[in-house]
Specification:
This protein is of the alpha+beta class. The protein is 47% helix and 14% strand. The chain contains three helices and three strands. It has a three-stranded antiparallel beta sheet.
Length: 74
């Protein structure tokens, strides 16, 4: 997937699932919550009501990291 040109784009955890599916990673919201406890997961940068917001670029980098880690393990 190509890098995001807009660096200020913010997403919530439900949008993360749709982005992961673009990478052909079929995950649930529970997986996102589990990933959020990992030290490499992007830090929240804002809040929209009851939803935490994350940087879109940071999440793309995290998903690429997870893919590379999975591929190197196999």
């Amino acid at each position: 997937m190509e890098p995001v040109k807009e660096k200020t784009a913010l997403i919530n955890r439900k949008q993360m699932i749709a982005i992961a599916r673009e990478y052909n990673i079929f995950i649930s919201i529970g997986t996102i919550h589990r990933w959020a406890n990992e030290p490499d997961f992007p830090r929240p940068v804002g809040k929209n009501g009851k939803h935490l917001l994350y940087s879109l670029n940071s999440f793309h980098n995290f998903v690429n990291y997870k893919l590379n880690k999975l591929q190197s393990d196999h």
